[in-house]
Amino acid sequence: MSHWSSTIGVTRYLIGDNTVQLGRSLKLLVAGASMISFGVVAGCAQQIDAQTLQQNQNSDVRALVNFGPRASGTQATEKASNYLQQQYRQAGYEVKVQTFTYPKFTDLGSNLTVDGKTIEGIALNGSQAGTPNARLVVVPNAGREADFAAVDAKGAIAIVKRGEIRFLNKAQNAVKAGAVGLVIVNTEPGNFYGTLGGDVQIPVLGLSGKSGSSLLQANQLRQANLAVNTRQGNVTGRNTIAHLPGVTQPKVILGGHYDSVVDSPGANDNASGTAAVLAIARQAAKTPLARQAWFVAFDGEEDGLHGSRAFVSQARPEFLKGLKGMLNFDMVGINDRLLVGGTESLTKLAKTTAPQVSTFGSRGGSDHAPFASAGVPVLFFYRGQDPNYHQPGDKQVDARLIDETARLGFNLASKISSQ
Ligand code: BES
Ligand code: ZN
Fold first, then answer.
1. Does the beta carbon of 386 sit less than 6 angstroms from any atom of ligand 1?
2. Range list of β-strands (E), 186-323
3. Which residue's alpha carbon is at the smallest distance from atom 16 of ligand 1?
4. Which among 49, 355, 101, 137 has a CA at the least distance from the CA of 238?
5. Does residue 331 line the site of ligand 1, with CB under 6 A?
6. What backbone phi and psi angles, to 5 degrees, belong to 316?
7. CB of 174 shorter than 6 A to ligand 1
8. What is the pLDDT of residues 127-185, one digit of tens each?
9. What is the whole-number distance in angstroms between the Cα of residue 14 and the centre of ligand 1?
C-alpha cells in the first residue's frame, strides 16, 4: 500500500495516559481492539499490527512523544534525533547532524517564604541564584530610584509591582539601594516569564498577582526567605539534515522543529510538523523531488530559533541564493483548517494548488523566519491556535491532518523545484 493511500481514517490518540484510540477504518483492521497501550507505563503494553502503524506518520509522532518532552540539550531530544536519523536513512537518505551551542538559563524551582508560607514563583531569565533570608521591604510605585530612596532597602529583600519601567531598571535600582534580593509582583493574577536582559548581581523572582499582591499591601516589617535556584549553562542543539548523496544544492528546504518546551510532550508543537516533513521525504524518495530537496529537523526552536539561525548563518550565500523556497511545518496536527503564511508568490501558489487553504498574517515565531531574513522565499504551514499550546496536554494529534499537510507540501515542493 502506498504511503499516501493509507486507509486510516479518523485516528486520534492520547499519549499521556498511554492509550490510543483508533478511528473507524483502523478499528476494523485491529479486530475489535479499540484501546491499545504503548508501554511507556510498564506492565500493560499490548501489541497491535505493527505494519499497519508503521505505514503511517502517526507512529512517528508517537515515537517522538514517547521519548518525553524534547527540550533542547536533553537526552530525550538526542534520542529523537537518533530516531529521525534512522528513519531518513531507511528512506534512502544520507543524514548529517549539525551541532550548535547557545547559552540557556534554567529555573530549577524558585519561591518566596513569608510567615511560614511558601509561594512558588518564576525566576526572571538571567537572574542570579541565591537564598537570602532578610527583611521584606515593600517599595512604592514602580521601583524607580526615588521609590527605593523612600524606604530602607539596605540588606533587605525588596518587593515591588511589575510595570512602567523595565525589569532591569528595577533590579539595578534595587542593587544600588543595597537590597540582597528582589521580588516583582505581576499586575495580572497569573504568573509571568520575565527576562532581565542584563547583568544583575542579586536573585530576582517573579510572583503572580494572585499570590503576591497582598504582600505589596502589607505595612508591617517581616522576615522572608527568598530561594532562587537557577542555572546558566550552555546547550548543544542538533539539526538533523537529510538529503540524497551528492545533492549539495537543493532548490527547496522542507523543515520543522522537533524540540519542544520543557514539560510539554510537543505532539502538535511540533512532532506533527516533523512527521509531515518525514512523510514528504519518504514520498519524495521515489520522485524527482528527492534530487532537489533537503529535509531538516531543527532543534533549539523553542529557545529562540537557534537551530534555523545556525543553519542560515553557517550556509554559504550561494547556497541560500539557490533556494527557491523554504517550507516550514509547525503545528499541523490539530484544527481542520490549514493556514499558510509567508512570501506572497508562494502563498498564492499554495492557494491555487489547494483552494481549501487560507492565508494568515505573517507570524515571525518559527524556523522560516531566519530564512526569510536572509532573502529566501518562505512558506509556513500551520493550523491555528491550539488550547494545549506549550502545555503538558499537548499529546494529541490527528494523523489525517498531518497526512493532508504532507500531501500539499509534497505537491508544492515538487512544483517550486521544477519551475
Ligand atoms: N509553534 C510555535 C510558533 C507558533 C505558535 C506559530 C502559534 C503559530 C502559532 C513555536 O514553537 C513557538 O512557540 N515560537 C515562539 C517564538 C520563538 C522565537 C521562541 C512563539 O511564538 O512565542
Ligand atoms: Zn513550534
1. no
2. 204-207, 222-227, 230-243, 252-257, 293-298
3. 365
4. 101
5. yes
6. -70, 145
7. no
8. 999 999 999 999 999 999 999 999 999 999 999 999 999 999 999 999 999 999 999 99
9. 22
Q: What is the pLDDT of residue 283?
A: 96
pTM: 0.77
Going by CA atoms, what residue is nearest to atom 22 of ligand 1? 365
**Model confidence over 186-218: pLDDT tens digits?**
999 999 989 998 999 999 999 999 999 999 997
Among the bound ligands, name the one nearest to the CA of residue 307.
Answer: 1
Determine if ligand 1 sits within 6 Å of the CB of residue 79: no
The residue whose CA has the least distance to atom 18 of ligand 1 is: 304
What long-range pairs does 129-132 form, CB within 8 A, spacing at least 24? 129/203, 129/228, 129/229, 129/230, 129/231, 130/180, 130/181, 130/202, 130/203, 130/226, 130/228, 131/203, 131/225, 131/226, 131/227, 131/228, 132/157, 132/180, 132/181, 132/203, 132/225, 132/226
Read off the C-alpha cell for 222.
517581616
